[in-house]
Amino acid sequence: MSDYDVPAGIDVLHVFCGPDGRHGNALGVVRDGRTYPDEASRQALAGQLGFSETVFVDDPERGHVDIYTPGLRLPFAGHPLVGAAWLLDLEILELPVGELYARQDGEFSWIAARPEWVPPRTLEQYASVAEVEALTGPPPGEGWLYVWAWEDEAAGRVRARAFPRRDEGIVEDEATGAAALLLSAQLGRALNITQGRGSQILTAPAPDGTVEIGGRVLLAQSSLSPALGRRRRDVGRANSSPSGD
Description:
Blueprint: E1 10-17, E2 25-30, H1 39-49, E3 53-59, E4 64-68, E5 73-74, H2 78-88, E6 92-95, E7 98-105, E8 108-113, E9 122-125, H3 129-134, E10 145-152, E11 157-163, H4 177-187, E12 191-195, E13 199-205, E14 211-221, H5 226-239
Parallel strand pairs: 2-3, 9-10, 11-12
Antiparallel strand pairs: 1-2, 1-14, 3-4, 4-5, 6-7, 7-8, 8-14, 10-11, 12-13, 13-14
């Protein structure tokens, strides 16, 4: 049942899957962070795996986690935290930037975070969905870029794509919770975002200045046992429906 060639002790999730259970951003989760005890070993593993992010769990009860891309360590990132909260069944995650709350609502997993926690990135609005979809690669320039267009402004439906534009092997990010959070905060409204090949991200600003980001999480590969991984993946697919679309 293994879709990924990863070392023992690592779960692989798909975060922000579409209504049909497909797509989503792949995430590696190391349940026991002690197996990679320092920053150098964690960075090496994240580079080896090649996922847009890999999470190391340092305290599964208190929600201490450590996030890495293939090239750098991050204080905050959206899809790793949604995935980790779902996998570990946590209501609170403790990060260097602060404490965030997580919840499960039917088929969707949510975290609430502050826009100021998000590393800098450019949000660029395009005139149409067709222009966003016509991109064959990152537009010229430097720095993290999130391009988007209204699919249905009245309904809050957005089409988006994300380009890290940094030298670490990730040309396009399939589903980006942090950028969705920033866009929702900038526009001051809830959004239903289709990103990449067909991933779905939901957002909801709150009066206290936080923004909830949510989506479906499926387990692609379990570090515990093949049977558990298969059961949780099948349950996730069974629960996926167009209701949140």
